Amino acid sequence: MRSLSPRFSRCLPGYLLAGAACTVLALAGCGPKSQTADSSSPSASAPVAAATGAITIGYSDWPGWTAWAIADKQGFFKKHNVNVSLKWFPNYTDSLNAFAANQVDANCQTWSDTMGPLAQGQAAKAVLINDNSAGNDAVVAGPDVHSMKDLKGKKVATELGTVEQFLLDKALAANGMTEKDITYVPIKVQDCPAAMIAHKVDAVAVWEPNKSQLLAKLPGSHVIFDSRSLPGQIPDLLVFQSKVVSARPQDVQGIVDAWYDSIAWWRAHPDQAVQIMADTAKDPGTPAQQTAFYKSFIQGTRIFDGPEAQAAFTQSAKPTSLYSSGPSIGQFLLSQKQIPKVPDYASAIDPEFINAAVKKGEGKQPPYDYTLKVD
Questions:
Q1: Quick one: which of 240, 231, 304 has its CA closest to 64?
Q2: Structure pTM?
Q3: CB burial class (10 A; 0-12, 13-18, 19+) of residue 299?
Q4: Which end of the chain has fewer CB atoms within 10 angstroms, the N or the C?
Q5: Strand bridging mode 203-207 / 137-141
Q6: What distances in angstroms separate CA 90 from CA 32, 98, 290, 342, 343, one per listed residue?
Q7: 3-state secondary structure the chain
Q8: CA 283 to CA 60: how far, in whole Å?
Q9: Can you give the pLDDT at residue 194?
Q10: Starting at the edge strand that comes first in sequence, how are the strands of the sheet with 301-303 ordered?
Q11: Tens of pLDDT along 49-81?
């Protein structure tokens, strides 16, 4: 998803209709080297699943998504009698293109990246929430800046139209400020650390691994705001083509059940689970470095257990409810001219499968114990 070289990209793209397909106007991102067995690009045509064919799920580098490799390797899809083909996208934006062009049956994507296709009329259903960002997205400042309010009149960089600009705007608002109070510098997220190290800007809004790299390379740099303060605003989902959900609800249920089996196995085998995820992502460095980075990466990602997921799919004023975050995200995208209108996001929220899983007693615990709780 988000990138060092660049490693991955998580952005809020704009969309255009070209015939029957949507094309993402991405602002960032390439990804890690893909696995030969299941790498793909959006140009590789793959029809939506027939009644008995394999259901194709696109996924990319994020702890809430690489965990699908656990379900595959541990046989949980087979356990639930569902034929699944996981399709790895080294570039997250390519997975969005593939989903918009009906080349995959489902995709792992953010709530914000689901808004564009919905606004253009694509029929899609979110059937599972994997996680919320819980620190992986952050505003990092130099040693002379101690708070968001200290940024008044200073240069602050991040990528225009991305989830990091959304984070920055929310951080400013929480401190009674707007972008008018700073000198906003539009720079690609992967280039922000270099700009700050060169003292061209005073602070940046970045995602992992750029955050950790900057903190390691610039003495005195520190986080002054991160996504832990924005519960529910950066949720990650499994989103299906609506026609697949209608045609194959039993298989969709089997996939959701397999997810919760994976979470339980992760909790029981933490080191093996992290190794599977790191190997899937193929992060730069030696295997030991990959695993160490992924452990830290996971700490900034709040994987939801079943009841937490159920609450996120329930209409309420709680910040982690998709019904609560939907208007905020939609209005931001509209203000940035990323979408033509705020879509009917509520129609894309399908709680049936999470509710059934929780009723069966699945997802009782997250993969590990968090100090950060969700409301």
A1: 304
A2: 0.83
A3: middle
A4: C
A5: antiparallel
A6: 5, 13, 16, 29, 28
A7: CCCCCCCCCCECCEEEEECCEEEEECCCCCCCCCCCCCECCCCCCCCCCCCCCCEEEEECCCHHHHCHHHHHHCCHHHHCCCCEEEEECCCHHHHHHHHHCCCCCEEEEEHHHHHHHHHCCCCEEEEEEEEEECCCEEEEECCCCCCHHHHCCCEEEECCCEHHHHHHHHHHHHCCCCHHHCEEEECCHHHHHHHHHCCCCCEEEEECCHHHHHHHHCCCCEEEEEHHHCCCCCEEEEEEEHHHHHHCHHHHHHHHHHHHHHHHHHHHCHHHHHHHHHHHHCCCCCHHHHHHHHHHHHHCEEECCHHHHHHHCCCCCCCCCHHHHHHHHHHHHHHCCCCCCCCCHHHHECCHHHHHHHHCCCCCCCCCCCCCCCC
A8: 12
A9: 96
A10: 84-88, 55-59, 106-110, 235-241, 124-133, 301-303
A11: 666 799 999 999 888 999 999 999 999 999 999
pLDDT at 34 over 50: no
Neighbour count for residue 194 (Cβ, 10 Å): 15
Q: Which two tokens stand for residue 77?
A: 């899809």
Domains recognised in the chain with CATH numbers: 14-132+232-359 (3.40.190.10), 137-229 (3.40.190.10)
Task: Measure Cα distances from 256 to 139, 276, 352 in Å.
Answer: 34, 19, 10
Q: Which pair of structure tokens corresponds to residue 323?
A: 């019904």
